[in-house]
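Re: the 382-residue chain
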Amino acid sequence: MNKPGDFNDLFQTLSWSEIKESILSKGAVDVELALQKERCSLEDFKALISPAAIPFLEKMAAKSMATTQKRFGKTIQMYAPLYLSNECQNICNYCAFSLDNPIARKTLTDQEILNEATILKQWGYDHVLLVTGESYKVAVPYLKNAIRLLRPFFSYISIEVQPLEEAEYRELISEGLSAVLVYQETYHEDQYKTHHPKGKKSNFVWRLQTPDRLGAAHIHKIGLGVLIGLEDWRTDSFFCALHLDYLEKKYWETKYSISFPRLRPIETGANEKKSFASFMTDRELVQLICAYRLFKPEAELSLSTREQESFRNHVIKLGITSMSAGSKTNPGGYSQPSESLEQFEISDERSPSEIADMIKAGGYEVVWKDWDKALHLPQPVI
């Protein structure tokens, strides 16, 4: 049943095929007009992600870089994922944690969480992203305990876990939760079920309404994104941009970030690797990053270790504001690297110090914490 007044109401008025056709119909004149504006509209965003914008990529990149430096300065924030569990009750045809993948399952104990935290803190991190599969074993009580364990180590704690109720988000916020990443994966409702045939994640609308519940719970930051490669990236990205625009207007006190995860190879329990076709070139990803920057100058844009070294080296100046480094995508990966399979293969395997040196060599400052949030941390619960 729809929750009245949420994003799903707007979403259901639009047609995937009509949006795709509208994007492909944009021409050079539309792109030029968009590049002349201080603030781009959703129609301008369509033009900037369209094939017609490819010849304008150099202009887009130059304007994106200037816009980013004006809003964020020459800084890159650093964060690290901390995988707590690979237990999952969903079947997703692109994820190593999928229920039908016969891998060893692991959920970190309190001591194992502390072991992971100790290593990340030694590397310099002050912002950690907690990641789990979607399972009753890692529900709110487990997450509350993990946040309590980690608050002495990190001033900024984010999560990327199963969608929760608004009241549950409020509980976690009271413990010190700062941000939640929740990717729709794809906004193609008809194909969503194909990629998510079993489990609670198969409920498209429940997932679509999650950012509304987060906004109502007054979370500090919401992270959005699509899994690039599941469906047409241009159409998916438009719907994600529409979602961002809606949220910014309705929950204007909340900050927002966009991530750009491209499908990566995964391991199966039979020592086999599953790869995926490339649905987006590096030039197209640069195009998308620049389009988001010109559409939403205040949004944080994040790039993970899914991307190759050379690409990450060159793209930080074009609009990216946060990066991960040294990432492990399996529970216990930092302190017990060989005990469980990773959720997906990373591409950039450089250490945090190497990434920091690369950022500094490019004339940028490395930021290990979110200063804005650090000024408003909740007091510990006694």
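The CA atoms of residues 356 and 366 lie 6 Å apart.
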